[in-house]
Design a protein that fits this description.
Arc Repressor Mutant, subunit A, 210 residues, six-stranded parallel sheet, Rossmann fold, 2 domains, homodimer, alpha/beta
């Protein structure tokens, strides 16, 4: 990664996975290069926005040629750490935990889902995404043995904070937080990505009431 | 809603539900007013950012007094359309559909979840969030009879586009899209809010690889 990435804004970072997706779809269709203008009409961004975004990382385009799709996708995947598999667990194997375990294609994004945990006796021992759900009492030894670096929190608000505290003490470096619990007090200890689906729903409500 | 809202940026809109949440937590604790400075340290925004955001909607604060929490929350709920219940259905009653149906508190955000649909014979007739899962063959009559205005798409990519097309012809005005399918071709016909969980996961991956 070059020095330029240091100053890349969060907004640009959040657009990179989207570039990656669109480029992947083009590559699947056998397309090998694309201009910023063509990419812009596809993605609903301006061509200058696209050039500016991709320049943050050194710029991959050639004037008058456009972008080499495969190379650009590879570069974005390196920037996003897709090539560096991180051992990952899910805490909570209810409907949400199952949906995340089975629907997310973790490997494609650089995460190796290797464990799933729950407190419920009815759920422990069942399967999710090919993994057997383990009891929370196994969490510490599992995290340490497998050097787990990422945890996905799919448990209710009440227990989320204490579980996160435990996870950090077990060596977790990143938390993908689906609980409706504010865990920002841990933000100096781990990387936190909160998913507030309610905020997304509210934005839809706003656009409907405009 | 005043004229000022016309020019409010998407970013401000997306912060409003967060203000709403934090204000709700304060109100629950019996706190009745708060300064922009106090709110800023709580939310991790600057005080001037908060004043600027809330000024977009006319400004609710009083110099030297701060914000009246109940009034501000009420105003935000009006802006976001929380008071105007919209009949809402979920398409797809797999793990994700169940998780959304049971975990989202639709009513609190202005949505009345009134139906859930699936194609699978094994799922039709089962319960989710107190509703009986209906067959897709009932979709058209249900949408028209109940004047459904919002659909949550929790089905695989392959069938999402054709289902959205049908829903629009049945009178749907807003789509909350969890399928990994790009439905932007319908953006002039319905309001679309896409949930790309993969992009959120990728952002976590980036912050871990920094």
């Amino acid at each position: 990664m070059n020095n330029k990435t240091q100053s890349v804004s969060d907004l640009v970072i959040r657009r990179l996975p989207r570039y990656y997706r669109f480029l992947g779809e083009l590559a699947e269709k056998g397309i090998s290069k694309i201009s910023s203008r063509e990419l812009s009409s596809l993605m609903g961004l301006t061509a200058s926005q696209i050039r500016q975004d991709l320049n943050c990382f050194g710029g991959f385009g050639q004037q008058g040629y456009g972008y080499n799709i495969i190379l650009l996708q590879e570069e974005i995947s390196k920037i996003l750490g897709y090539n560096n598999l991180k051992n990952t667990i899910i805490i909570g194997a209810g409907n949400l935990g199952h949906a995340i375990a089975e629907g997310m294609h973790f490997e494609k994004r650089g995460f190796n889902l290797c464990g799933i945990f729950d407190v419920s006796k009815n759920i422990i021992g069942t399967k999710a995404a090919g993994l057997t759900v383990s009891p929370m009492s196994d969490l510490e030894s599992f995290c340490k043995k497998k050097k787990v670096s990422v945890a996905v929190i799919c448990i209710p608000k009440d227990s989320a904070k204490s579980v996160c505290k435990d996870l950090i003490s077990f060596g977790i470096e990143g938390i993908w937080n689906f609980s409706h619990c504010d865990i920002s007090e841990f933000k100096d200890l781990v990387k936190i990505e909160n998913v507030h689906l309610g905020d997304s729903l509210a934005a839809l409500g706003y656009s409907l009431s405009e």
